Amino acid sequence: MIPARVPRVLRMGPARLTAGLDHCRRLDLPAHRTLHGLVEPRDLEELISYANEVDMRGRGGAAFPFARKLRAVADATGSRGDCVVLVNCAEGEPASSKDAMLLTRNPHLVLDGAVLAAEALGAREVVVATAGGEVAEASVAAAVAERRAANVSGGAESRVPIRVVGIEERFISGEGGALVRAVNGEEGIPPGRKKRAAVSGVHGLPTLLSNTETYAQLALLAEYGPGTYAAVGTSKEPGTILLTVSGGAAHGAVIETPTGTLLADVLALCEAEAGDGVLVGGYHGAWLSAEVAQAVEISREGMKLAGATLGAGIIVPLGESTCPLGEAARVTSYLAAQSAGQCGPCRLGLPDVARAMCALVEGTGSVDAVRRSVRVVERRGACFHPDGTAKFVLSALDAFESEIALHLEHGSCGRPVRGVLPMPEPEAEPEYRLEVDWSRCQGHGLCAHLLPEFVDLDDYGFPSFRTIPGWMAREARRAVDMCPALALRLARTTGDGPPPVGSPLRLVRDGVLKKAGESVPLLTRVNGFTGISRARG
């Protein structure tokens, strides 16, 4: 059964990535071979030539030229002939479902592309890294088993080993360095120092790392040849692309469409009104006004002209029934909670950005305060997460200028936060508290310097503590270990602390609790700061 998070499939133009899905819920190996035939191996130079001819780019968001990746891995491998092909299926973006759709419904197309690259490079194995869905992982594992069974019964499937690895789902899971670390059995967070996977990736070997749709596109390019592949789409960006449309759309879907299609036509297909704006490129993307959204085309070039990036093909129309500023603050709080927490901009800066955004929603903050907090995190992080979050926030400030004025003047724009922007279901996580032996504490204040978000000092330099979320446990233990007086210890809470991350707190206004079933903006504690969420009273 197709999971609820994978929407239905629609298309505009020819069916390529979605061929056969009108008739089958999932294409098994026989059905896939009937549609696409048996993959013929290509040598490396031929694949590179094909990719260069159609200017094939990665579909995970960065749009890096695929031919350059192939060449870089080949050069790093040299005469050793020992490398790995890694399929990045860690779709950490809550608003994206295209990779999950491919894995669940058309996994063999993805595997065909990965195997093509592996054979051309002489790779030792293909690794498929999945996150966030047992169904998707099971579908890929079943596809691998189908190929093995076909070979046992005399088939001609490639014998390149394919390994499926499940990793933890987080927003940062799909970052290249984080993914390689997770596959290698380490903590799945971006490394402090940038390492090129093409030089040192899985097991320290040169690794061809690209996302799910990219490998599916490679399989189609080899099947059709550059000429037929480029028969649809624009001359500069030929082919089709997968988009995930959600948010205020009446019919959320994964849509396959040729590049060059108008965004307005895509929205019309999903019965979506742009309303106060359309988010393009996901939660590290940018907002387009309704007027701009009507004229922009679906392509990297078209989005660049509109001041946005296509990214991983995420389209989220906002509609007019929700508070746009509250929605933006809600996502900002989520992004702050999803950081690796390993550098200052993530651990300290992003929570400050979220607090400033939430204060703006409540009418007590200022645009200048938000911009100041954003400047602190830009271009200073260990990975791109702070910069992507900053881009999202600054775009929201520009797009929702009139709504911001209403919040600052009246404390609200008059609309509730309905949770239109997709967000994963919150999961309870452990919480901790710092306990102090007052007979030992000498008021050094070092704990407040190490954990400024959770420790306050009184006028005499003695601490008081707030509950610490699980993601900060490592830093809290560090504060315990470094206490000069050995006065601290870390204890697990027993349910008497604040609600888990993302759970709603009922908001009483004017002494009246909102009636059951009414959608209202509610205060939510997210990793120690206040955010906005939607709940039913």
UniProtKB/TrEMBL annotation:
Biological-process GO terms, alphabetical: cellular respiration
SMART domains: NADH_4Fe-4S
Protein origin, superkingdom: Bacteria
Coiled coil segments of this chain: none
Keywords, sorted A to Z: 4Fe-4S, Flavoprotein, FMN, Iron, Iron-sulfur, Metal-binding, Ubiquinone
Cofactor: [4Fe-4S] cluster; FMN
GO molecular function: 4 iron, 4 sulfur cluster binding; metal ion binding; NADH dehydrogenase activity
Pfam families named in the record: Complex1_51K, Fer4_15, NADH_4Fe-4S
Domain NADH-ubiquinone oxidoreductase 51kDa subunit iron-sulphur binding intervals: 325-370
Family per record: Belongs to the complex I 51 kDa subunit family.
PANTHER family: NADH DEHYDROGENASE [UBIQUINONE] FLAVOPROTEIN 1, MITOCHONDRIAL (PTHR11780:SF10), NADH-UBIQUINONE OXIDOREDUCTASE FLAVOPROTEIN 1 NDUFV1 (PTHR11780)
Protein name: NADH:ubiquinone oxidoreductase, NADH-binding subunit (Chain F)
Source organism: Nonomuraea maritima
